[in-house]
Amino acid sequence: MKPLKNAIALLPRWDAYTMGYAPDGRRRFVDPDLQADVYTPIGTGLPGDGNPVALVDGRVAALWTFSLKEGAELHPLDTLAARTRKRLEVKLQEVADLLTG
Question: CA 50, CA 7: separation in Å to the nearest integer?
Answer without folding.
Answer: 21
